[in-house]
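Hi Y.,

Following your request, here is the sequence exactly as I used it, all 336 residues.
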Amino acid sequence: MKKIILFLILLSFCKIEEKEKEIKGYLRVTALNGLILRAGPGTNFPKVKTLPRNTITSIYDTIGQTTEIKGFKGKWILTEYQKTSGYVFSGHVLITSNKESLENDSFNKDPITQFLISESGKDPIIKKLKEKNATFLNGNEIPILKRFYEDEFSLIETISFGVEYSPKTITRTIKGSNIIEFPDINNFHPIKIYESGKIIEGEYYPCYECCANTNPIIAIFTENKSISFLASASDTDALCYPEGGNTNFNRIRFSDMKNELYIQTKVGDCSEENLLYCYETNTTDSCKPKRYTSEFFKIIKNPFEDPIIDIYYNGIPDGYKKEFKNARKLIEWKVK
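Below is the corresponding structure, written out as tokens. Let me know if you'd prefer a different format.
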């Protein structure tokens, strides 16, 4: 009997070694306090190590059916950290097909972030919003909650402190549970709804009571994990502002056939030389850059269930140019 057990252990080990030879993708840890690496695919298996937040590592296999752990949905992923193999829960990771998507410095400057979750009501969210924006508050503000959108599955609300240019965030309460999702950013001012309530467009305020331009931001509410990133749901052209800031060239499209979301972004050259040219030609109100310094192309596969994200930093890959051209614009959702 002992020989049989030993044989099965060795066989299991060999299978893991064989799976490790084939990389099926890459992950980046999003959990604030790190992610536990376990000896097997389940919380009943012992802890081996902890992967710190933003750890990037390979995916060798995905195990079992979707499960829920403390409000997060996902599967178990076979991976490796510091030469130790084990399993992590996919509810706390961003997944990509190409490693460059996660390693590039531009990812940190223009990140895709996973929503945080509260199981203790809205009080912790209000506290976090106050802490992150303490510079712009006196501490005596009373939070105001407003319904923004509701369907049979969830309720989307805003939490703010009274005036238009004040700290604000958006939350989604999953009906039938005590789970509340909210963006992992300082603030999110929602404006429009797209794709039957699955996409919210808003404005991100870098600061309050200052002249800085707001940035367009997108939230995608998915079945297993919600994400946000800087982009506009509408087409925008690159512009430079003499008082500081800029607008990026932006195109976002959805492919019904492939169930993929595409985002094209081009960053214009808003150098002093370009701004001086706009002053000289009296075109400061529509100051367009003469050239682009970089171009990104994001692909979000299966965006409304369990997104897989790829980012290309040299423009649209040849294999996607036709797909991007044939894809449609986002459909605005009129709330009754």
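The chain has six helices and 24 strands.

Thanks again,
Q.
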